[in-house]
Amino acid sequence: MKKTTFLLLLSFFSTITFFAQQKQKDSIVAKPLNEVIVIGKKTKLYQKQSKPLATIDEYLQQSSKVEMIKRGGYAWEPILNSMATERTLVTIDGMRIFGACTDKMDPITSYVEVSNLAEATVVSGQEGGCHGATIGGAIDLKKNQSNFSNLGWNTTLNAGYESNSNQKIIGSAVSFVDKSFYIDTDFMFRKAANYFAGNNKEIQFSQFQKLNISASSGVRLDTDKMVKASVIYDKATDVGYPALPMDVSLAKALITSLSYEYAPTGVTLQSWESKLYYNTITHTMDDTKRPEVPIHMDMPGWSDTYGMYSKAKGIFGAHHFTADVSSFYNRSVAEMTMYPNDPNENLMFMYTWPDVRTLYYGLFLEDNLVLNPHSNLLFTASIASHTNKVASQFGLESLQIFYPKMDALNKRILGSFSSKYSYAKNGFEYGLGFGFGERAPAVSEGYGFYLFNSFDGYDYIGNPDLANEQSLESSLSFGYSKSKWSSKVSATFFHVSNYIVGVPDAKLIPMTIGANGVKIYKALDYATIFNIDLNLEYQILESLKWQSQLVYAYGKDSNNRNLPFISPFSYSSAFNYLKNRVSASIAIVGNATQSQFSPYYGENETPDYAVLNTSVGYSFYVEKIKWNVRAGVENVFDTYYSTFSSWNNIPSQGRNFVLNLNFGF
């Protein structure tokens, strides 16, 4: 209790020490100012981004609240507020999607591309509860969407090349819009060989190939009514994961939705959107290209999700309200077949995810009460039913070896609430928030069967008897902005009860050859996580801007052990130049030494590093076609380094020459 009180006080006094970045946008605050990362189809995108055709992972790293667990050159796993994807949510246009890989090689961010996304909204803690039960927050990836303006045809072509991995990028987007109909289409293809770390060290099995195709369409039925449909098809093949013992031969997703929107004017109800969606994911792990494999395995996985939500927004006096009813049904299955080296021995088969069916339905309510032109109070609350069922009898009997009294069905009730006060006047802004939330164990935590974790070298077994994980959170922010400069500091503190981790069980024998042992998921009494970030911006000249970011995090479990993947002090600083047709940037990013690492969870010390990146761009017209050219160098000095979130200390990419081309008509 003393440590919790100390960290809360530290959060408070650290926050009031610094200043704020985000400029006041309106004297009447109707919504909280969430962090928005611009990704595609925005004005002057190519002039404002140092690497316009970067992956979604690289865009998300711009956020001070997001880090990435890197297992190779592709499909990084986002960490939000120092919490991995079990404790956070990633959605696409509000749709729930679940990966099909037991090793988390296919985060939801891997199934979209810069060509079909407009922005990513990052929200902390229970402010992300509108998308479902969460502890750490949510990231919503918003698709590009025409809006019955800029009538006619629009075509954009993209091409890119990166020298380090010999990566080739090609893509296009074609749209047509009239007053009552629009259709947007796009595709993006990437193919990369192995990348090289600093000092020209080749990282074997880091290649990948990916195709993404997307289409969306809308029909205006009346001035205030419209129907929209969307589809994304993503297929990655020959994906190497050098930090893991297996690669991926296929990761495929089909993501679809159909929605109806009603947006009346001049009444209490401002908008009402109802959406039906379906997505299916197939993921196949493969070890056939590895030179030394003790025993060959096939490990396919499948995830199918059917979902809906109906969200209404409106204004009643000083109240800006949102009501959201949502539901989804997910089926997650993963298998493992082992092929002995002796052909006379029998194959061994088991379910690593035993056909787990999840049914969720919930209600989320939000009231943003405007107190006066400068301040508001935001209240949220949610209640949800979460039911798991093991549909495979064979899988159920396998788990009953460890849990003889286990039932196939497990029902839970999940709740949350939060409040936040915000104030903004004369350049000052500050906020204070509190919240409570809980989540159900993820499929692996509840029902995983001998899942090998190469980070700590243990086989993991799920625990269906786990209680809901619960979190008490507080947040503070303070800032000040003037005509040429702005700054913002924000801090969050989480006290997570029933904190779910794997705990070694010496009585069990591992199945994976060479494993250190077996861990069973259990709930620690609690864990505490503290994050603080400072963002600064100064407009030196009309055409020259300086931006800087400082981030620090702290995490301990109830046994006073450091939590894994907690960022040491990290920083970035950039000068951005933009005038007429020319743009340029130079930036330095780095981490201090990760001294508070966690051997218990498989970590070791990560040295400090600093990397210099630079780029320059030019825009011009050839007749009526606008061209944008961007060239740059990443890791200019070819530094050899790995980050605190690099799986098994896999080194990051060395010097990389980048060329991005874009033209549209």
If you had to describe this structure to a student in words, what would you say it looks like?
It is a single chain. With 665 residues, this protein is mainly beta. The chain is built from five helices and 33 strands. The protein has one domain: TonB-dependent receptor, beta-barrel domain (Maltoporin, Chain A). The protein has helices spanning 2-15, 45-48, 56-60, 393-399, 443-447, and strands at 35-38, 66-69, 77-80, 88-92, 95-96, 117-124, 137-143, 152-162, 167-177, 181-192, 196-197, 201-202, 208-222, 225-239, 247-262, 269-286, 296-316, 319-339, 348-372, 375-390, 409-425, 428-439, 451-453, 458-461, 469-481, 485-504, 517-541, 544-557, 570-579, 582-591, 609-622, 625-634, 656-664. The radius of gyration is 25 Å and the shape is globular.
Summarize the structure.
With about 675 residues, this protein is mainly beta.
Key terms:
globular, 22-stranded antiparallel β-barrel, disordered N terminus, 665 residues, Maltoporin, Chain A, mainly beta, five-stranded mixed β-sheet
